[in-house]
Specification:
The complex is a heterodimer of chains A (407) and B (346).
Chain A: H1 11-25, H2 39-46, H3 54-69, E1 70-71, E2 74-75, H4 87-93, E3 98-99, E4 105-106, H5 108-112, H6 114-117, H7 156-165, H8 176-180, H9 187-213, H10 218-234, H11 236-239, H12 252-267, H13 273-277, H14 292-297, H15 308-311, H16 341-350, H17 372-385, H18 388-392
Antiparallel strand pairs in A: 1-2, 3-4
Helix pairs in contact in A: 2-3, 2-9, 3-9, 3-10, 4-9, 7-9, 9-10, 12-17, 16-17
Chain B: H1 10-35, H2 58-62, H3 66-95, H4 99-125, H5 128-151, H6 154-158, E1 160-161, H7 167-190, H8 198-225, H9 238-263, H10 272-276, H11 284-312, E2 313-314, H12 321-327, H13 329-335, H14 338-345
Antiparallel strand pairs in B: 1-2
Helix pairs in contact in B: 1-3, 1-5, 1-11, 3-4, 4-5, 5-7, 5-11, 7-8, 7-11, 8-9, 9-11
Classes of the chains: A mainly alpha (407), B mainly alpha (346).
């Protein structure tokens, strides 16, 4: 007959369950996150991937930088240098994901960004190797889509813009939906501050590594380097370029003429657009190049990125397989820096930092180059490539010629 | 003729079905928690911001942040499933004549409680690794509940253990093993830790793709087996096989869609749409696709189990549950009366 004893709830079972549970949870408790030392930069500067001191040197530089900027769970800002980030927002973005007892959310970077960009902002998150293009390594302090010239830092608005709009055709999401909802209203702003923080921290680390390799007094240098990097960021707003008001409503004849003139500029040897984008602007040019992030640890370190035997030893320092930077197919209308005429204007005038896309040579005094009118015609041509019907009708789907940024 | 369903209690079956059907939305909600990284949206446990789980103000729950809505909802539904699991145990204890089924019901309750504790420990320790284990074991608990429903169904009582060679059953077990393993790999991908190296994540993705291919082959092989001469007379085997075909097709589509919703596609210039597609961070449809892929994975496990049960316990050749029930109608009617069940027990 059926026993009335409740099964599975006897003492033997409970003891076994307790032992299993203890063993199960052993080691599951989270450990404090650490920034990953920049071994790749040490290896590329030393030009010897077998150098025995690479790990030690990178660790030493990272520790010095940690002393200034704190750790992923507890960021800080040196009081001696210009305050170019809002530390309350940096602290909201840092640390593990969760809400406190007042329902304020923390760990925004780990929630939204870390899978691709990595804890250190080195572009070596777990998913990174499978993405095309690879996620941005913030530590060079270089950003592609911005309103400042090549070599200058992006403005806060530039970073917010990329975060809000994302980058079409890449894994970079648009967080605009977060920003439109009341509870997340400040998230994107906080993330932009954290990106700035990670970039400064990473660039200070890189420069410190160079100083250590050059046998300078690293301890004395760290604060001075941090001060210099922060100062560069503080100048970004004043270096921002604003797009002029561009014609958006044309008569068909005027637009056709502008497009034709722009096409000539595009095909001219002076601009050399066709070298990369091809004569049909479909991205099938003859020139092939790597981006600056790849050249950093390959060409500048004496490594040929097309030869696997040469770059493979760098993988253990976090290098990802070198991939050619493919020029944009302009006929698809997928412009990562923005699809309006004003965005295209800035990309042509300012170039795309870190990529082979240079800033256009402007005609100044006796120097050969493209005039302002020529640039505007080029913008119209590039814009028409993905809007052929609209441009031939003399209308536009551009929401406005003015650049949306309010720098 | 002996009466095979004389001792069956439909009450146990109904309770098992109810708790299983409640477990599936629980898995969806759990998936949404992972998709929105909402595991720590409520920092305390077992309460919610100091309130008892059931006394947390509804307005604060419904109109609060979305991650809080999802996490608190997941906890509440889990508690409801736990309560129904207790009811199932009581009903099974009182009405079920097979000792092993009662044991499985109590095992199910223990598993539900362990899942709850695991979820709580994940919050208290703020440990993503435990979240991953919690995510792996959730569908297994769902499968256990489904198994109870299968074992208490009318069909189970009317069927007999398969005699002789049973290749279909063995393949179904292989598929079940593959599906569970695939679930583990998928849970790793969903709960990847920031410190993981890209090469490790890449190997997980490749493993996930390889196992998906093996599952697809197994499901096609099963579709062939249920239609061959040895099994063609058992038309009831076709239902789980067809369901598996549909689920696998859905999973493959959802898998691709999940990758695109998360990371876009590497072949961006294939079409203007792909070139222009921008991933929406925590977008609604993106969340539904990603969570749907995970939830459909648990259906794959249950369906494999369903097929395994049907192939290891078969109805007489050419018979169906309906025809056998008609044949045994007087006995069935008697069996469904509670007093007859008690007589059967004692």
């Amino acid at each position: 007959m059926f026993s009335k004893q409740i099964p599975l709830l006897n003492s033997k079972f409970l003891v076994l369950f307790a032992i299993w549970a203890s063993a199960f949870f052993c080691g599951c408790a989270p450990q404090e996150m650490q920034f990953r030392p920049n071994e790749l930069h040490v290896a590329s500067l030393s030009q010897d991937s077998t150098h025995p001191e690479i790990t030690e040197l990178a660790k030493s530089a990272s520790e010095r930088v940690d002393a200034l900027f704190g750790k992923p769970d507890s960021p800080k800002w040196p009081s001696e240098i210009a305050n170019v980030v809002d530390m309350s927002k940096v602290k909201r973005s840092a640390g593990p994901v969760g809400r406190d007892k007042f329902k304020v959310e923390y760990g925004l970077f780990r929630k939204h960004c870390v899978q691709c960009h990595g804890t250190t902002g080195d572009g070596q998150g777990p998913v990174s190797a499978l993405l095309a293009p690879y996620p941005r390594d913030f530590r060079r302090g270089s950003f592609k889509f911005k309103s400042t010239p090549i070599g200058k830092k992006p403005t806060h608005v530039d970073l917010v813009r990329t975060l809000e709009n994302g980058l079409p055709g890449t894994a970079m999401p648009a967080f605009g939906t977060l920003n439109r909802s009341a509870e997340f209203a400040e998230d994107v702003d906080a993330l932009a501050h954290y990106v700035r923080y990670l970039s400064i921290r990473g660039e200070v680390e890189r420069r410190l590594i160079s100083a250590i390799i050059d046998l300078e007094d690293a301890a004395a240098q760290a604060l001075a380097i941090a001060s210099k990097v922060a100062e560069n960021w503080s100048l970004a707003d004043s270096q921002s370029v604003k797009s002029p008001t561009l014609v958006t409503v044309w008569t068909p004849e005027a637009q056709s003429a502008a497009i034709e003139r722009g096409r000539e500029v595009f095909l001219s040897e002076l601009t050399a657009c066709t070298k990369c984008h091809g004569k049909l602007a479909d991205g099938k040019g003859t020139s092939q190049d790597f981006d600056e992030w790849t050249k950093d640890w390959t060409i500048r370190a004496g490594i040929d990125p097309s030869k696997k035997a040469e770059w493979k030893p760098m993988k253990r320092f976090g290098a990802l397989k070198p991939v050619l930077d493919s020029p944009r197919n302009l006929t698809l209308g997928a412009f990562r820096g923005g699809e309006m005429r004003a965005d295209i204007y800035l990309r042509i005038v300012l170039g795309i930092e870190g990529s082979p896309m240079p800033a256009i040579a402007r005609k100044e005094n006796d120097n050969p180059g493209i005039t302002e009118e020529g640039i505007r015609d080029l913008v119209e041509y590039v814009f028409s490539l993905s809007n052929p019907l609209l441009s031939s009708a003399g209308t536009t789907n551009d929401k406005g010629g003015e650049h949306e940024q309010s720098n | 003729m002996s009466n095979p369903i004389n001792s069956r209690s439909s009450l146990v079956y109904l309770a098992a079905m109810l708790v299983t059907l409640l477990t599936f939305p629980l898995i969806w909600l759990g998936g949404l928690v992972t998709t929105h990284d909402a595991g720590m949206a409520v920092p305390d446990w077992p309460g919610t911001f100091g309130y008892n789980l059931f006394l947390y103000p509804i307005s604060a729950w419904l109109y609060g942040p979305f991650d809080l809505f999802v996490e608190h909802g997941h906890r509440q539904l889990a508690a409801v499933v736990g309560l129904f699991a207790i009811v199932l145990c009581v009903i099974a204890y009182r009405n079920e004549t097979r000792h092993w089924v009662v044991k499985v019901c109590f095992l199910f309750l223990a598993a539900i409680i362990a899942q709850g504790v695991l979820g709580g420990v994940r919050v208290l320790l703020d440990a993503r690794t435990i979240a991953m284990i919690h995510g792996c074991s959730g569908p297994l608990v769902f499968a256990l509940g489904s198994f109870i429903a299968m074992a208490t169904s009318k069909r189970w009582h009317l069927a007999s253990p398969t005699v002789g060679s049973n290749r279909l059953g063995r393949v179904a077990i292989v598929l079940l093993t593959l599906s569970v393993s695939q679930l583990f790999v998928g849970a790793h991908l969903r709960h990847s830790l920031p410190a993981w190296l890209p090469a490790f994540f890449m190997s997980l993705v490749h493993t996930h793709l390889l196992m998906a291919s093996l599952i697809l082959i197994a499901v096609f092989y099963i579709a062939v087996l249920v239609r061959n001469s040895a099994n063609s007379a058992n038309r009831e085997l076709r239902t789980p096989s067809n369901a598996l075909l549909v689920i696998v097709a859905m999973q493959i589509l959802l898998g691709f869609a999940t990758w695109i919703a998360n990371y876009a596609t590497p072949w961006v210039e294939l079409t203007p749409w792909l070139a222009k597609y921008t991933v929406q961070g925590k977008g609604f449809w993106e969340s539904m696709i990603i969570t749907g892929h995970q939830a459909t994975g648990s259906l794959l496990i249950v369906c494999s189990l369903w097929l395994a049960c049907r192939s290891y316990r078969r109805l007489p050749v050419g018979q169906s549950v309906a025809s056998l029930s008609t044949e045994l109608e007087p006995a069935v009617r008697k069996a469904f009366r509670p007093e007859s069940v008690r007589v059967g027990v004692e």
